[in-house]
Amino acid sequence: MTVFQELYQFFEAGLKDILTTREIQDCWRAVKEDLLLPLQADGAAAKEYNTILKTVKEAVQQIQSGTPIQYITKTVYFYGLQFRSDKRALIPRPETEELTHWALQDIQSSTERSMSILDVGTGSGCIPIVLKKKHPPLKVSGIDISREALSLAAENAKVHKVDIDLMEANILEWEKNLLRQHEWDIIVSNPPYIPYSERDRMDASVIYHEPSAALFVPDHDPLLFYKTIMAYGKEHLKKGGRIYFECNEFNASEVRQHAIELGYQKVSVKKDLQGKQRMVRMEL
Description:
Blueprint (H helix, E strand, L loop, with lengths): L2 H13 L5 H21 L7 H16 L4 H5 L1 E4 L2 E4 L9 H16 L6 E5 L5 H9 L4 E6 L2 H14 L4 E4 L15 E6 L4 E2 L8 H6 L6 E2 L6 H13 E10 L5 H10 L3 E7 L5 E7 L1
Helix pairs in contact: 1-2, 1-3, 2-3, 5-6
């Protein structure tokens, strides 16, 4: 039996009562690739077995406490790229990859090369970084109300060697801040959209570990951010400019209807790979 096989047996024994076999295997793969193999590369082969075992024990304890695996390994993979991930920002989900892909497809098929892009609620910076890396002529900006999230986005941008403009700004107060000075070809956003009343139905690992400001909206106005971004777009999108939204599967139709009422054109809803209505695109 190899050392890694022994470690996996310990890892599995500590988690079999709370995770499925598939979940354990997925977590183990992340721990092995992002925590243990880098240790070996740094000379851990010469370290005592107990030193490596301690790392595995700590990972098991954190998983048992509900800490997301991405925060334990400090790593998340998004659109084929590796990003640093920690509690400063929301963990990017597969649906956000699909939103990014939709926008990127349109960008790459456009005859206009040097477009200006704004990501509202940029978090770890994954959307603007991917767009800039895949289409370098873009002028890409990301805003967030969280300085901590912006610091994480800056770290990721540095790792990927892309030049993006990161700004601390609240989209809900755009008429008072620097956003009123800009015009954009495209706005992309995965804004908060979960009503506070649904908080108790969510997984504890999300509620207690991921930033609530990136998740929740008031019960009385669940479309708050969508409405605000669309209002901002009416004033600050260039003619023919577009907005791309990630949505709750239950509010995509409402977002679409509000866009039509505001006068946006070519408003379309796109399903994700699970067949759920999760994305909306509109044009000014």
